[in-house]
Write a structure and sequence with these properties.
The chain is an alpha+beta fold and about 625 residues long. The protein contains 11 helices and 33 strands. The strands form 7 sheets. Strands 1-4-5-2-3 form a 5-stranded mixed sheet. The protein has a 5-stranded antiparallel sheet with strand order 8-7-6-9-10.
Length: about 625
């Protein structure tokens, strides 16, 4: 089986593929059907129709099963048409002739005494078990008793039957059964004692399951840059397309997107993230580049093409203004001229100071340096001719003539209205498929999905910027503290008041994400007491501390907190603390659900205004 070298973390979207699988209850010992399908399809053992449907309820024929078995061997993806007709009922022109021929030669399967193979005949559990045991290296001498008693006994002892509903030797196997059978084969031990998947160039993870991360990466092809004619690189018609981790169409992939694909899964992934600016460093050297710094951010190089472009043999040097095309792992998959790709970012200015930059000749120069929080949720640092006010909106635009980046102030027409209950429209505008939404509060920002805004009414002060795509859909949106998700939430662990009258001072200690902070001897009296709080500004010197509102005591269930007949939605990053002997200890939601302790929760504002449960306390 192929073992291509790949480089990035597996995308979440891949692990949540919409496989259109019917629901089926699997025994407690088995893996989920979805994960089994991902492994078997990624290895190319099984594939779906043009719509991606695997037809898992259909029974498996002998021709289909031996095809799967051969594809599950180290060189199984190289089988072509048979040299001659292996059987009268399997002519050379038969779609499975090569697999039937290969299966017979390897001793995995045989024809019938009348000289036929019967390719369309449905296969039974005992026959399928015997074929899989043969893949593991077991032969007739390894089985006791008459066929199929010995084969079925070993098949069960090796746990090849986990998830297989066809329990009896004479039962017919469905394609769902075949998924589980070949998935179980991967972790089964061969006659020599090694996991079968090792023969394919892969391994098991710490839990003894096929390492899906390594498998997906190893069986994925790319990256390539989407430009004219790029689709000819695909040897299949995709049944699933994802762009920036969201379900999309092949037509939605644009020039300068970075594209990957897995032919056996019929899936294409595209990524549109870019970074534009002057190259400030190439490390460790241009002779052997491993990373590049552009616009104040350092990126690892994820492809040989990117490494070549930034090497002393390539066309880009320190000081060149470029656009980095970022791959699925966030590293550089390709490099292009800034004017060609016309990359740009819109965002909020976080800082504007004088800074030094390498000049490419061993020296440095001074320029205004502006850090921008962009709608993609990342920060970028640019050189600018002028200072920009902190909190103002800017666009980092590329001059087509010079290729240089310029920062320009931006504004947008007023926009207000209701977001529909499905989170698909704001007022009369539909959210684009890959809309970028940035919610900003106190110099911090968080990217959110349109669904997070479902049912909320936004006024013109809350919508600071919006932009439409050519189809008139909302493509970019910058909000002013609509959801509260950009806030910082923790617990006040200590409060002291000292002195009297005009000499009164206050001291505070609080925990934020497991880190302790102190405000000693300030004259400011924040309206807080020990317990959950929101922290505004730099936590080492906060602008404000304010209390959260109690939702009472209750219980957790399905991402919600129930108390007094009301249900509250949890924030994605809800902070959980255990309170033991008067001290707070940072904990996890999973521990809270299993603790058996008394749970209490606090929220920032009403859910109808975008609020969420921000802090949960578990008491002994």
């Amino acid at each position: 089986m192929k073992a291509k070298r790949f480089f990035a973390a597996i995308l979440a979207a891949c692990l949540a593929l919409a496989l259109a699988l019917p629901c089926a209850a699997a025994p407690a010992e088995t893996v989920s059907l979805e994960e089994a399908v991902q492994v078997v399809t990624a290895l190319g053992i099984m594939s779906g129709d043009s719509s991606g449907n695997l037809g898992l309820d259909r029974r498996v024929s002998r021709a289909e099963f031996i095809t799967m078995a051969i594809r599950a061997t180290p060189d199984g993806d190289g089988v072509g048409q048979a040299a001659t007709s292996p059987y009268p009922d399997v002519p050379r022109s038969h779609w499975a002739s090569g697999y039937v021929e290969a299966g017979v030669k390897r001793g995995l399967i045989s024809g019938y005494s009348d000289g036929t193979f019967r390719p369309g005949q449905e296969i039974r559990t005992a026959e399928g078990a015997a074929i899989v045991l043969a893949l593991l290296g077991y032969g007739p001498d390894d089985f006791s008793g008459a066929y199929p008693t010995g084969q079925m006994s070993m098949y069960q002892s090796l746990k090849l039957d986990r998830g297989v509903s066809a329990a009896g030797a004479a039962d017919f196997l469905t394609r769902r059964d075949a998924v589980y059978l070949f998935y179980n084969l991967m972790s089964a031990r061969t006659r020599e004692g090694s996991a079968y998947i090792q023969s394919l160039g892969y391994s098991l993870d710490a839990s003894g399951k096929p390492d899906l991360l390594a498998l997906m990466n190893g069986e994925m092809e790319g990256p390539i840059v989407a430009q004219k004619g790029w689709k000819s690189s695909l040897s299949f018609t995709p049944s699933r397309v994802y762009r920036n981790n969201s379900v999309a169409s092949l037509a939605s992939i644009q020039d300068y997107d970075i594209v990957y694909w897995n032919a056996s899964m019929g899936t294409v992934w595209a990524y549109a993230k870019k970074a534009t600016g002057p190259i400030q460093a190439i490390e460790p050297s241009s002779a052997n580049p491993a990373s590049v710094t552009v616009a104040g951010r350092t990126y690892d190089l994820e492809s040989s093409a990117a490494s070549l472009a930034l090497s002393d043999l390539g066309q880009y040097r320190v000081g060149s203004t470029v656009t980095l095309l970022l791959g699925r792992g966030g590293g550089v998959a390709a490099v292009t001229s800034a004017s060609a790709s016309a990359g740009e970012q819109v965002g909020v200015v976080l800082s504007s100071v004088k800074g030094t930059h390498p000049d490419g000749n061993g020296g440095v120069y001074t320029a205004q340096t502006v850090t921008v929080l962009a709608t993609d949720g990342q920060t970028y640092t640019y050189e600018a001719a002028n200072s920009h006010r902190v909190g103002s909106l800017v666009r980092a635009a590329v001059s087509v003539q010079s290729g240089e980046v310029t920062l320009q102030g931006v504004s947008s027409p007023s926009l207000s209205g209701q977001v529909d209950r499905k989170g698909t429209k704001l007022d009369r505008y539909t959210f684009a498929e890959n809309a970028q939404i940035l919610d900003v509060a106190d110099g911090r920002g968080v990217t959110i999905y349109p669904s997070r805004l479902a049912g909320l009414r936004l006024d013109s002060k809350q919508v600071r910027y919006y932009a439409l795509n050519p189809m008139g859909e909302l493509e970019k949106l910058i909000l002013s503290d609509v959801t509260g998700d950009a806030g910082q939430y923790g617990v006040l662990t200590s409060f002291e008041e000292q002195g009297e009258g005009m000499y009164t001072s206050y001291s505070y200690e609080f925990d934020l994400g497991g880190a302790s902070y102190a405000i000693p001897g300030t004259s400011t009296r924040f309206p807080v007491s020990n317990g959950p709080i929101q922290i505004t500004g730099d936590p080492s010197s906060p602008d404000r501390l304010r209390p959260l509102t109690s939702a009472g005591t209750g219980e957790l269930s399905n991402g919600q907190f129930s108390s007094g007949g009301q249900r509250y939605t949890l924030a994605d990053s809800v902070a959980v603390y255990e309170l033991r002997s008067g001290k707070y200890y940072l904990s996890t939601l999973a521990r809270a659900e299993q603790s058996g302790g008394r749970l209490s929760a606090w929220y920032d504002k009403a859910e109808s205004s975008g609020g969420r449960i921000r802090v949960i306390i578990v008491r002994e």
